[in-house]
Amino acid sequence: MGKSNIEWTDVVWNPVTGCDPVSSGCDNCYSATFAKRFWKGRPFSDVQFHPERLELPLHWKNPRRIFVDSMGDLFHPKMQTEWLDKIFWNIGLCPHHKFLILTKRILEAQVYFKSIKYFYSNLWLGVSVENQQTADERIPILLSIPTAKRFVSYEPALGPIDFGELLIDGLDWLICGGETGRNARPCHQNWIRSVRDQCVEADTPFFFKGWGEWSHEIPNDLYDERSAKVANLAWRKKWIEKGLMWNAVLKCWQKPCDALDGSQEMFKVGKSRSGCLLDGKEWKQFPKER
Questions:
Q1: Most distant CA atoms of the chain, gap in Å
Q2: In the chain, where are the structural domains located?
Q3: How far apart are CA 175 and CA 126, in angstroms?
Q4: Cα angle, residue 277 at apex, residues 24 and 255 outer, rounded to 5°
Q5: Model-level pTM?
Q6: What is the mean pLDDT of residues 187-216?
């Protein structure tokens, strides 16, 4: 609880913890992995309310971007309306902060906001999507909810997305990134490049967190002339086409990744090596705040 390593927020606030998977983007959930390591046998599906944490934002005097419920989903079916009312009451008491809520259960969020009929000028509401299907299902519902800012987290990026008019119709921010963790799936550079170009055209701030565990090129500290020759041998390419394989010379995994324009060879090199450069540039844009 407190200062966060998540680049797009300052701190996290978890008045509720616990969740259940709802789509393929949840398969390798970092929060579930954290819970398995540190919750001493408590299953991640055990949704719990922590009233002792409710007033934490009141003690943070300097304005902050606060990510609400990084260890769960605020609109989980097990959430009680009484819990939500208390959480939003404290959000309303802190107009100097910006509260960022991210959910995959945007339909439940829509129902709740209709019931309270109150506009929070310090609330940024977002949906998490991973492919075209989840984007088409969730974003239009988000756009129907009155809130100060609406944003999308396209993470983990598991397939290409054409946002179409959705970027123009009311989205204030788009965050995206590849998957991290032991079982992370690769993210093709053309998926991210396409979304960046869509954001630039729509004048929507674009925040690229990074490629995750996989890279579309061999990092300099793994690359040498001998590695390049071995990686390009015809027999090795045939093995790569069959699926994931270990490249002992490059000291990383290799795998083909479906792309917008065919397949691309990917290298599992780890989050720190894959970096966050897109066409040689970092994209860390934020919405303008009034």
A1: 65
A2: 2-211
A3: 10
A4: 50
A5: 0.88
A6: 94
